[in-house]
Design brief:
single chain; alpha/beta; twelve-stranded parallel beta sheet; eight-stranded mixed beta sheet; Hexapep; Transf_Hexapept/Carb_Anhydrase
């Protein structure tokens, strides 16, 4: 994978983590146990330190960067959705930052909070624990329900399982020229989208 030292500071990747070969890590980056870093993610520790705690995931095309002498941290079980940008901020334990959201300097996403897809969290904002924030700029929408917090944790555990699957079976191959007969499907996880979960709950018994 593209992994670069700068000023003699070398990225750290725990042996139980999975960092996709197309992700780029530069300088003062620490990827903890069981973490997942997806394709084309960029973790640029050339100014401030970047730390992913145990079980965190940073998905495809995310960008993480920060100012000098400031740490950008994703705590345990933090969940950073596709295309999100984190800059000199902290995402607390079990929180989720949705797809294409931006979390700016010195902002803090509280424990078990959810920042909605495409939200913009301004510099210095404190996202309260166990709340949903959405919009541009992001505002508190409401407290999260217990089933939403459980859904988030289930999704994070699915990414932790993906880390193990990648370590066990991800290999670079040449594509097939046509679909084979009886093409196998991937093993199905139990997790489903939140809208599908709500739809199933609303069906009459």
């Amino acid at each position: 994978m593209p992994c670069y030292a700068i000023d003699g500071v070398v990225p750290v990747i725990h042996p139980s983590a999975h960092v996709h070969p197309t992700a780029v890590l530069i300088g003062d980056v620490v990827v903890g146990p069981g973490c997942y870093v997806g394709p084309c993610a960029c973790l640029r520790g050339d100014f401030g330190r970047i730390v992913l705690h145990a079980g965190a995931n940073v998905q495809d095309t995310c960008v993480i960067h920060g100012f000098p002498n400031q740490d950008t941290v994703v705590e345990e079980n933090g969940h950073i959705g596709h295309g999100a940008v984190l800059h000199s901020c902290v995402v607390r334990r079990d929180a989720l930052v949705g797809m294409n959201a931006v979390v700016m300097d010195e902002a803090e996403v509280g424990e078990q909070a959810i920042v909605a897809a495409s939200a913009f969290v301004p510099a210095g904002t404190r996202v309260p624990p166990r709340t949903l924030m959405a919009g541009v700029p992001a505002k508190v929408i409401r407290p999260l329900r217990e089933e939403e917090i459980a859904w988030k944790l289930e999704g994070t555990r699915t990414y932790q399982a993906l880390t193990r699957r990648c370590q066990a079976s991800l290999v670079e191959v040449q594509p097939l020229s046509e679909e084979e007969a009886n093409r196998p499907r991937l093993p199905a996880a139990e997790v489903q989208s939140l809208i599908a979960t709500k739809r199933a709950e609303s069906k009459p018994a």
